[in-house]
Design goal:
2 domains; single chain; mainly alpha
Length: 106
Amino acid sequence: MHGRGQNIRARIQLEGYIIRVNYLFSAWRPSHEKKIVPEKEKPTARRGEKRPVLSPLNYRDSVRRAYQAARETPSLFDKLFCYCYCDRSFGHKSLLSCYATTHAAG
């Protein structure tokens, strides 16, 4: 009987622990509310960047790979909004604009 009592006690402690952990993680989960995305930030049609992507050979490592990806898929990059809002300060049209300049290199 002594062993069974310990098992029940351990189970109750474990269940309490699980409930506390679930509560903590539920507080950290992001909200499931839909964020309203401004129209200009939605990936839609090309935005019209005409300049060529700079050579990936000018850069190293991950920056080189990013410039190579932009060079291989310019139509995709031209549909994407740049979240550093360089359209306001640099007059960029899309994320592709960053790769037509040194802006994407940091």
